Amino acid sequence: MKIILLDSIRSMQNVGAIFRNADWSWFEKIILTWFTPIPPRGEIAKTALWSENTVVWEFYEDPIEVIDNLKKEWYKIISVELTPEALDYRKYFWKSEDNICLIMWNEVSWVSKELLDISDEHIMVPMLGQKNSLNVSVAAWIVMYAFV
């Protein structure tokens, strides 16, 4: 099963876009945590094009507890973040039988140290320009596409 965990995403439009990406890429579930907005919201539906009704989603306050539970179910936890040990997403080897959970964070604060520490892997999208981040929904789409 493929899951994406959105932790502290501020923009409802980004949340909606990630729902749409998940529907397209067959990610079966989105986990929303902390202050990530949850459906039903018009601002989410506008970019999700109602995929928030077709992709299973759950909300939890504490992302650490969610990750601990997923690890007990043999999920591979993959943070999408620019860290020194992060692998280029194009070189990451994923087996289709693996259960995976991608962690995405907002573009200002990046993935928290606690989540990075309990992740099994870090992967990143190489940056070519002056900025060191992409819009979270764009980064999510790039990485989700790699898992298709």
Percent range of helical residues: 25-40%
Number of domains in the coordinates?
1
- Any guess at the CATH architecture? 3-Layer(aba) Sandwich
Counting DSSP E segments of at least 2 residues, the number of strands comes to 7
Could you please say which CATH topology applies here? Alpha/beta knot
Strand content: 15-25%
Q: Could you list the spans in which at least 5 consecutive residues all have pLDDT below 50?
A: none
Please identify which CATH superfamily we are dealing with. Answer: SPOUT methyltransferase, trefoil knot domain
Rg, Å, rounded: 14 Å
Counting DSSP H or I runs of 4 or more residues, the number of helices is 5
How far apart, in Å, are the first and last alpha carbons?
12 Å
- Element-by-element helix/strand order: EHEHEHEEEHEH
Give, in spatial order, the strands making up the sheet with the most strands: 3-2-1-6-4-7-5
Sketch the major β-sheet.
Answer: 7 strands, parallel
What layout of secondary structure does this protein have?
Blueprint: E1 2-7, H1 12-25, E2 29-33, H2 42-48, E3 56-60, H3 63-72, E4 75-80, E5 87-88, E6 99-105, H4 113-118, E7 121-124, H5 136-146
Parallel strand pairs: 1-2, 1-6, 2-3, 4-6, 4-7, 5-7
Helix pairs in contact: 1-2, 1-5
